[in-house]
Request: fold
Amino acid sequence: MYLNQFLLLAAFLFCVGVYGVLARKNAVLVLMSIELILNAVNINLVAFGLFRESVAGQVFALFVIAVAAAEVGVGLAVVILIYRNRHSIDLTEVDMMKG
Amino acid sequence: MLENAWVIPALPVLSFVLILFFGKRLPKHGHEIGVAAVALAFVLACVCAVQWVQRPANLEVKPGSEEHAAAPGSPAQANAVAALEEKAPPGSEGGHEGEGKGEKEGEAGEHEAEPIRKPVVKEVTWFDNGQTRVKAGTHVDGLAVTMMFVVTLISLLVHVFSTSYMHGDRRYTHYFAALSLFTAGMLVMVTANNTLQLLVGWELMGLCSFMLIGHWWEERNNSNAALKAFFTTRTGDVGLLIGIAILFFAAGQTFDIADINAAALGGEVSHGLVLAGAAALLCGVIGKSAQFPLHTWLPDAMAGPTPVSALIHAATMVVAGVYLVARLYGVFWSGFDIGGGGINPVALVGGITVLIAAALAFVQTDIKKVLAYSTVSQLGYMVMALGVGAWTAGVFHLVTHAFFKGLLFLGAGSVSHAVHSFDMKKDMGGLREHMPITFKTFVIGSLALAGVPPLAGFWSKDEILLGASSNGYPVFLVIGLLGAALTAAYMTRCVYLTFFGEYRGHGQPHESPPAITVPLVVLAALSVVAGFVNVPGGEWFAKWTENETVLSAGVAHHSFSPFVALFGSALGLLGIAAGYAYYWRNLGPHRLTQRSGAAGTGYRILENKYGLDRLYTDWVVGGIKGPIARGAYWFNQRVIDGVVNGVGIIARGLARFVYDTVDQKVVDGVVNGAGIGAEDGGRVLRLMQTGRVQQYALFLFGAVVVLGGTLVLFTTG
Reply:
């Protein structure tokens, strides 16, 4: 068991998440990608906690999970409202804030 | 009451404030407050007087000027002896008995070491600058008690008189307020124990005099007269201020009058310093008491209401100067060497004033002006009395004069109340039948003034003449006798023109109401009996009033001289007889002024008041004001205008520069630049604002990568 295995996994997950956030047009998939990023972070936290023999990493991971749950709730609600108004959840079409 | 004498001046002050604030709303427009306050003050002054008389006389002061007559060159030494003896306890007086009495045994010796009443002093610290503690307080001695009594009495009568005389006046309330303040000023002055307090009272009276002379200021003449009185007395007041300053330092940094007197008499102060102080104070006296050559304001001051003339310009304020001499007698005594005989400035000023003012009284047609010049002349008598060393006589004359001159002025007021004029030649005459009370009282006042025995004026004038003859001042004896004859003659003229002959005015004159006649009767009674207070044999007045200063200076006392009395009253009667012959019997050189060139010239000189008014207004004032005005104009045009214009030009250039450079370029540039910058920045930045969330996320991650890369690069590399 080496720490770098966890870190590599987390880095991979993070990159997948970032790609999803930047590249996908579907808002739900973007939200799911954000979850991937957060979970990559969670892995890092728990791994470092174990490595340093500290419980703090796990505590932070729990907080991140709770915050992620709240974020997904809000995000899905926004997506649903967008869908109701435009009958589409394509993020490229949502550009009313264009300057 | 003697300890709490401050209540007496405080009452009129209170009355002044109350009248000023509430007078107009009261049913009688304020005179009830004034009359009540002054009446109460009078009662308290009477209580003071009674307590003073009953006070045990236990202070022994030894006269110390025996060597004066013998060796005038060394007054300081003699006074030093006096001061030493004064400080010694009363019990040890016996040891010194033999030293002092010398050559003048026959004259001065009969009053040796008679105990006097100790003055009642009460004082509080006024202010304290670390070195000098200036006290305010009351110094009540016989002189102060006498003055309080006289001032409150005359003031009360004048208040009562005014309620009728000033009835319906447009500034009735203010008139009574000023009258109250005036009374307060005089009382503050007479009870003062230090020269500063004295100055406060003195100036307060000057102010009230100004306000009351100019009471009817709508007429130009009246306000001019007020200004003249104020400025003329002010000229003298400069001297008073300087004198107070000199004496403050001469007496060892003290304003205390008793200390100043003691220091002046004590001889430890240099004679030159005392002389300078006395000379400066004399200037103040000349101004305030209308002595030659600053007497010109007093006749003009008759522009004020008649009761004011009675109160201020006859009975009380103008005697402030006399009081000042009497109060600071130690300074004058040793400064001018009054005990030495011959001629000294105080007596000289008084003597000149007696004669010139009496002469001027002959050519006046205005009844008040006759009385005004008579006042000036009588004030001259008082000053002369003090100057020749007859202290008691001077103060006594002050008191009796206050009674009969107050009476005469109020009588003149009563007459003018009836005929609405002051002109004796045009609007009076024959008032004897129409105004019996006024006539009788006026005649009593005139006789008292003329010095007819046994009325008040006789006794006091006789004492002055006696003092002049016995103290080695023969010149002033002659002046006094001449003045007595002149006084009697011009008063006869005045009485004739006013009350005898045919009535020359308009309408039907009638006797005045009781508010006017009662004060006349009271004053007439006093004019008759007041002289007996100091009648030879009793001499209670001298015993009551003479204070430590006077006795330690060694003012000589003289026994009654039938010769002087006879001569004095004979000359008075002669004056009356001459007047009687001239006016009633039509004898003597009538129309002399038209027939004789010399007499005409003399008459014109008198009519022009010796040209003094012209000298002051045209030469002195005119001479000063022309160059000063021109100088001020030049200064204004060249210097002040130059400065103002220069400042304007500089300011304009500076403003132009600031506008062109700073404002237009710098400030506006910054403001416009900010606007333009914001606009351009916005135009560029809006390209980034695509509205697409994922592009924003891309920027975000890109930035994170760049920052993270930089961090890694710098921390590891």
Strands of chain B lie at 57-59, 116-117, 120-128, 133-140.
